[in-house]
Amino acid sequence: MPSHLSSNSTIVRSPARNTLNFWTMQAKVTLLDGSVFTCTVEKRARGFQLFEKVCEHLNLLERDYFGLSFRDADNNKVRLPCNFFFNVKFYPPNPAQLSEDITRYLLCLQLRQDIVSGCLPCSFVTHTILGSYTVQSELGDYDPGNLCGSNYISELSFAPNQTKEMEEKIMELHYNCRGMSPAEAEMNFLENVKKLSMYGVDLHHARVKLRHWLLVFSSDSEGVAIMLGVCSSGLLVYRDRLRINRFSWPKILKISYKRNNFYIKIRPGEFDQFQSTIGFKLFNHRAAKRLWKVCVEHHSFFRLLSPEETPKKFLSLGSKFRYSGRTQIQSRRASAQISRPAPPFTRCVSKRNLLSRSLDGGRTQVTCQNTLSGAK
């Protein structure tokens, strides 16, 4: 039977049966400056493809430190379609090693959100120092002729519980920043913020699983609420906002999860004969798996020369997830090859009220106005 579709024929489709609408969807990504980037992606596209579109939109080459996330009802970061947040995934221990100003600026935006939300606690003195660099970066040199009112930073956001006393001290320090370029102010901001104890720590709620690890916890600590923090150096344990233990990546032999339990196997010490396995109880299976994946990614990125290959066995037990991106060493090598002129971009002003999260998982408000150059 001859085909009805000859080379001279045309196909007319009704709007209701438009193939583009059927196979594609609109994805919205909230950027670090508060603007929203919207693009069309295939419904079966991988998250990496959307991430690439966002990075192209931002003109960002040093992409390995960033990622996309979605926050569920419990404010936990999960991977779901449609509405995403572009944010920092791996906080570089030494931001000065980043090659481009735009990368450092995006890192500054993330850290300002972390600070204002209370996720990154600071002392009064640190708030004022960091605030002065933020003002210098966003408003430039102190100039009474161009400033409206004596408190020209009252509409800017620097801390969860911002006071007039803090603003006055920030203005005093801002005056001393005269002559500093925005890029220099951001570098000084990063050099100070990287020294904070909670810098780059991804927190997860948990409970101590068993009582008999007396070398790690007290004998009455079973079931006590704690927080596990994942960072570039390893796994941290917090109780009542105080760090009570630290397990560096070289000390951890294995990480695993089963149901809602998360386990780490510790390398024996100088006087220990046996390896120790320490268990923690998470809220549910999904939370335990999420913590495990975050640990896998951080260990791979900061410790390995290159990512591990995914097992190819047909019948294998356990998760096949492996970190597949570039490691920090590979990223630094790629950054060293960047030779383009510095891309232009517009710095935003740290207005108040952009949705973020607190150290305890609550939500606070912080806003940023204006956009990066080219933002839609």
From TrEMBL:
A single GO BP: actomyosin structure organization
GO cellular component, one term: cytoskeleton
Signal peptide: none
PROSITE patterns for this protein: FERM_2, FERM_3
Entry-linked Gene3D superfamilies: 1.20.80.10, Phosphatidylinositol 3-kinase Catalytic Subunit, Chain A, domain 1, Pleckstrin-homology domain (PH domain)/Phosphotyrosine-binding domain (PTB)
Pfam families, per the entry: FA (PF08736), FERM_C (PF09380), FERM_M (PF00373), FERM_N (PF09379)
This protein's record includes keyword S-adenosyl-L-methionine: no
Lineage per the UniProt record: Eukaryota, Metazoa, Chordata, Craniata, Vertebrata
Protein name: FERM domain-containing protein
Organism: Cynoglossus semilaevis (Tongue sole)
